[in-house]
Design goal:
Domain DUF1977: 6-72, 87-143
Strand order of the largest sheet: 3-5-4
Shape: elongated
Distance between the termini: 30 Å
Structural class: mainly alpha
Subcellular location: Membrane
Strand content: 5-15%
Radius of gyration: 21 Å
GO molecular function: Hsp70 protein binding
InterPro entries: DnaJ_subfamily_B/C, DUF1977_DnaJ-like
Number of helices: 5
GO biological process, one term: cellular response to misfolded protein
Number of domains: 2
Helix content: 40-55%
Length: 168
């Protein structure tokens, strides 16, 4: 996950100097003297930043897979994708119309209009909004970096349509 001990994603030990990749603005930590050995703007620095981004993406994908597996371990509902195991029936939250998927028998166990169903829909909405806000933050950061006010921010736009503050 780390390239020859050149960087870490967390501040620890000798890795105390915070850096940020030019592309995507990913934070990483390096040892003192890194800037002298790998000056900004050099191909050596660019190569390291490419590796930082690659490692960060791989790490993020692993974390995401673990989190999704945890979410999908619910006995009765699943979101956001259909056909994962036995969760094949598409549902939609009353508020905002967010899709989620359930297994057969869900309506019997959690009838529409009950507090149990409302609690599940609140969790679906909460998770959806938190994820949307995280993605929106990245979109806004990229928009700012691009210096283009027309840079697309579809997740922020969706949150605004829902009348939800795009950034928590």
């Amino acid at each position: 996950m780390r390239h020859q001990g050149l960087y870490r994603f967390r501040r620890d030990g000798n890795f105390k100097n915070r850096m940020e990749t030019n592309e995507y603005g990913i934070d990483y930590y390096v040892k003192s003297g890194f800037d002298k050995k790998y000056p900004a703007g050099t191909s050596a620095r660019a190569d390291i930043e490419k590796k930082v981004i690659k490692d960060y993406v791989e790490f993020g994908q692993d974390v995401c897979k673990r989190e999704l597996k945890q979410q999908w371990r619910s006995d009765d509902f699943n979101y956001p994708t259909p056909n994962y195991g036995i969760f094949k029936n598409r549902m939609e939250t009353n508020e905002y119309g967010i899709d989620y998927y359930v297994k057969s028998g869900f309506d019997k166990k959690y009838p529409a209009g009950t507090s149990a169903r409302a609690d599940i829909e609140k969790k679906v909405i909460k998770d959806y909004v938190e994820f949307g806000q995280d993605v929106c933050k990245r979109e806004l950061k990229q928009q700012w970096r691009s210096d283009d006010l027309n840079y697309p921010t579809p997740n922020c736009d969706k949150l605004r349509q829902m009348r939800i503050k795009p950034i928590a």
